[in-house]
Amino acid sequence: MNADLQSLLAEIAEWDGARAPKPADFTHRVAAVFHQCGRALFGEHYVAPLAAQLRLKPSNVDDMRKGRSKIPLGIWSEIAAMVHDRERTLPQLRAAAIALSVMPLTRTYRCADGMSFDVYPDVTGRFPTIEYGDGYPIGFWAALPDDVRSLPRQAAAMRLVFNGEQGNITPLHAGKDVFYPPNMKVAR
Fold it and tell me: The whole model's pTM is what?
């Protein structure tokens, strides 16, 4: 769970609606959780499928995700049930996908120019962090979020980071080879 969600859950647990007003950014933060739930359940373009599942107009769901409309408690109950159902089926789907795979578990990352490269986990199943740089010489390094599989257009190079140790820099135009940090035992 990310820090924003943990913070919001702690505030909800401590908040007494009868005695204290909601924090100023509460509506915005609740809308952000609604958005994250929609994406997790139905993907990037979740508004229409979520609206259909909740028997609402897509414009109502759009208003909720943007914080323009209050999200009724019954909607949260429906979303909680959908997340629960998805959570129960994901382990079986993951196991089936791995069993059907002809390759070891990998993550495929795509670059803006269409090139792609695969990254393997370590022997315990943990993946390294992907960091990308903006050009030569590298002006900055930014970590790619764990759930993102496409590098931004400005990315010129990447490196893997595992437990704080960095692999060698890989220019993104140079091919599909990636260099793992020395402290990482790669599962292949």
Answer: 0.51
